[in-house]
Specification:
Blueprint: E1 8-12, E2 17-18, E3 21-22, H1 24-36, E4 41-43, H2 56-69, E5 76-78, H3 84-94, E6 101-105, H4 114-126, E7 131-136, H5 138-141, H6 147-153, E8 159-164, H7 169-178, E9 184-187, H8 193-198, E10 203-206, H9 213-224, H10 228-244, H11 252-260, H12 277-289
Parallel strand pairs: 1-4, 1-10, 5-6, 6-7, 7-8, 8-9, 9-10
Antiparallel strand pairs: 2-3
Helix pairs in contact: 1-2, 4-6, 6-7, 9-10, 11-12
Length: 298
């Protein structure tokens, strides 16, 4: 029996900073905004959250705040590294805050083989009774988790989902087609939400929903309900946001957009820096065209 079924839209949350420190009060406000919009699950401490630049104490406090505010929806905490021992230590750090699942990225930089990836994720899953979500993003990690490896891992009961951001539709389609019952395939790219969910994916882990959570919730729900006409309309409306959130490395543009909306300070931790002026102007234009003006914070 699988312990957790992830469906709909989950937000890969940004981590707001002020004067170089984590802005916990603003973070709490962002959580409440997401929950009010009807988001289906939350994903703190991922790539979008600049987690490699957070201390263990900061990660734990963010997780505790997430848990305090989100009491009725799943929380999937980012926890992967390129070292098994460090990943397990990170899970231990967050354990007292009791996330519902851990998002574990393909180990980056060391370029493991498929056998190495299988053994790594098997060891991670075997270390906990919590649900595990695989995260395949070869553009960042330098290694691709192939469909056959994902499907083999999907047979492990507490590996419940994969966030697929390879951009390889053929590969993702094979996973969707052959996944065991209860295993969720989640789009890792906003712009692929429509085609993937229309062909059987369960949802999306979204960057754009930091900016437009209500729109992304409506898109995911339309797709789950088979309302392709509504989904198509929302997809086209949101396409500029999907595209412009990646004109620089994530989360640089999405933070620029949120700053333009008055939600956060446009602050990142090195080696990331705030967006170029042209990107800030582009994202401000994008959110204005969506009607997400600072006065409404909608």
């Amino acid at each position: 029996m699988r312990k957790l079924k992830l469906t709909g839209c989950g937000t890969a949350l940004v981590t707001p900073f002020r004067n170089g420190e984590v802005d916990y009060d603003t973070y709490a406000g962002l959580l409440d905004r997401q929950l009010k919009a009807g988001i289906h699950f939350l994903v703190p401490l991922g790539t979008t959250g600049e987690t490699p630049c957070l201390s263990p104490a900061e990660r734990l406090k963010l997780m505790e705040i997430t848990k305090e505010h989100c009491t009725d929806r799943p929380i999937v905490a980012g926890c992967g590294t390129n070292s098994l021992s460090q990943t397990l230590e990170g899970m231990k750090v967050l354990g007292s805050a009791a996330p519902d699942a851990y998002l574990i990225v393909v180990p980056y930089y060391n370029k493991p083989t498929q056998r190495g990836l299988y053994e790594y994720f098997k060891a991670v899953a075997g270390s906990t009774d919590k649900a595990i979500v695989l995260y395949n993003v070869p553009g960042r990690t330098g290694a691709n988790l192939k469909a056959e490896t994902t499907l083999r891992l999907a047979e492990i009961p507490n590996i419940v989902a994969v966030k697929e951001a390879s951009g390889n539709y053929s590969q993702i389609s094979e996973i969707i087609r052959n996944a065991p019952e209860g295993f969720s395939v989640l789009s890792g790219n906003d712009e692929e939400t429509l085609p993937l969910m229309a062909t059987g994916a369960s949802g999306v882990i979204s960057v754009a929903s930091n900016v437009a959570p209500e729109y992304m919730v409506r898109l995911a729900e339309a797709l789950l309900e088979g309302d392709i006409a509504t989904a198509r309309s929302l997809h086209h409306k949101l396409s500029p946001l999907f595209r412009n959130c990646f004109v620089e490395s994530n989360p640089i543009p999405v933070k620029a957009a949120m700053a333009a909306m008055g939600l956060i300070e446009n602050s990142l931790r090195l080696p990331l820096v705030p967006a170029e002026d042209s990107t800030c102007a582009l994202l401000e234009k994008t959110v204005r065209e969506l009607g997400l003006c600072p006065a409404s914070h909608a």
